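YM 10:42: Adenylate cyclase sequence, as discussed on the call
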Amino acid sequence: MGLFALFRFYGLTHIESIRMADDIAHLSMGEIMGYYILTGLSLGLLYALVEFAFEKYSSKRLAIGPSIAIRTITYFLSTIAVFTLLVGLISDLSGINIDNGKGWWLKNRILHATLLYIFIASLVFSFLKIAREKFGRGLFIKMLLGTYKKPKEEKRIFMFLDLKDSTAIAEKLGHLKYSQFIQDFFYDLNEVVPRFDAEIYQYVGDEAVLSWSYNKGVAKANCVKVFFAFEHHIKKRGAYYRERYGLIPRFKAGLHGGFLMVAEVGSVKKELAYHGDVINTAARIQEECNNHKASLLISETLLNELDLGSTYLPTSLGSILLKGKHSEINVYTIEENR
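YM 10:58: structure's back
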């Protein structure tokens, strides 16, 4: 809004062919900027509350079209209400006689220009939000800066999280109901991962690949805690899953970390791609869960970096030769200390 004030009023008083209204002409540019910034702060707070309410209380399963329509109407009515209140406040503070009576916004041209500006600015913010959701938290800025235009080595942790008995569930539910089941499963996963600084690298069928920068994954044992937090979340939602699908989803996961390469790939559809033994090993560890009747497996090298305290109990499975590997690695199962 400060930028709009700059576009709209800066230098107008010095242009001879333009005469500003007497009650506005006496205001300095600083005062005009101040009032518009106050308006912007008020609108920003209001919009944040609206966004929070939609994220918290409205269904994320609502289609994009209806969601946009409802939010647009809410924003419009909220904006008019804020401007009506602020116009009265600014009139009292500055001595400007601005009409803010019933229907005032229908004939106020400055307000019309302001609303158009807000609409365009909102589109820009919406595109930024979509891009952020597409690339994941923290990656969008790096993509803009071209951080991964050239392959770069990073130390990361990966978790391959897979739905158990997915084939049997798909046969039981049918492809439509199963697709809705997977949607709900991943929606619930998205409720949990932000609390543990995890990034969702990709979804592959009934599998999700989570990733952390090494320090964030190790800190507070986030890479382990997210698994059990998701378990608890699914249990809380058990009644919903039973009522709708007749079962509660169960899942397994494999964890490993280390150095690998990350690079931006593609031109028509850009993505970040990770290359290296770490991601392959994490996937192979997850595949061992069924063989050992375990829900969570982790490599010894990563486990040694974690402080699990007394909350979680690691148990060694010894050295395992993973599929496609030439050397065995030590693998542990982790269970919650109940």
